[in-house]
Amino acid sequence: MKGTILRCAQEMVVAHHPVGTWAAICAAAGCDADLKLVPQRTFDDAMAVSLLTAGMEVLELSPSAFYEAYGKYFAHHYARRLYPDVYEQSTDFVSFVAAVNHLHQRITSENDGRPPFFELVWRSPAVLTISYRSDRGLIGVARGLILGYADYFGEEVEVDQASETRLDLYFAEPPTNGEFVPSAEPEP
Ligand code: HEM
């Protein structure tokens, strides 16, 4: 997996936690604390998962709390600085999420990336199901990033992880640019 996912975790820990916390996380994951997490470089998937899991353990956070903090840091700070152009393409949460597959392709196409894929289906005007397609088992990262970008764009939404591959988003208000298509079947 590309170093950018881990680099963001490192920056978040260094920004918000005491000196030595990142080294403790690396030690718990069995990694070298001096490892340079170059965003465009590919790192071993198992090592990436070990580092993220060690992050939760050392910070004493549940996976959802860890990834929620991660997602906010990614959306508000890390990606804004590293990928400022992606913030110019959308002015609202729904269109940003709808463009994520394209965004992933564009960001990773030049350096041989293998990003996840998301399938979006509107269940009702205020309920969106997002299916996560990846063999890395990082749906928690996806949930955290979705919540981070909802916070960034000021969208009020709850994200329920229904399974290892499915997230259900419940919007406080139906978004005007949602793409719910009512069923042709008459209501019973
Ligand atoms: C709602 C927004 C987003 C979601 C849900 C999302 C989800 C994810 C997840 C879950 C991964 C981990 C890899 C995997 O599971 O297979 C990932 C990887 C990645 N994401 Fe995103 N992401 C989002 C936004 C962004 C943005 C804004 C950027 C950069 C501008 C970005 C760049 C990347 C890159 C470079 C990778 C590494 C892919 C690879 O290793 O080939 N993502 N993303």
What does this structure look like?
The chain is of the alpha+beta class. It has 2 domains: 60 residues; 101 residues, H-NOX domain (Alpha-Beta Complex), CATH 3.90.1520. The protein contains 7 helices and 4 strands. Strands 1-2-4-3 form a 4-stranded antiparallel β-sheet, with helices on one face. A hairpin with a 2-residue loop joins β1 and β2. The longest helix is centred in the middle third of the chain and has 20 residues. The mean pLDDT is 95. It binds protoporphyrin IX containing FE. The site of protoporphyrin IX containing FE (HEM) has 25 residues, from α1, α6 and α7.
Using brief descriptors, characterize the structure shown.
single chain, 188 residues, alpha+beta, H-NOX domain, 2 domains, 4-stranded antiparallel beta sheet, 4 strands, 47% helix, binds protoporphyrin IX containing FE
Structural class: alpha+beta
Q: CATH H-level name of the largest domain... which superfamily?
A: H-NOX domain
Instruction: Please tell me what the overall shape is.
Output: globular
* CATH architecture classification of the largest domain: Alpha-Beta Complex
Percent of residues in β-strands:
5-15%
How many distinct helices?
7
The hetero compounds bound to this protein are: protoporphyrin IX containing FE
Rg on CA atoms, Å: 17 Å
CATH class of the largest domain: Alpha Beta
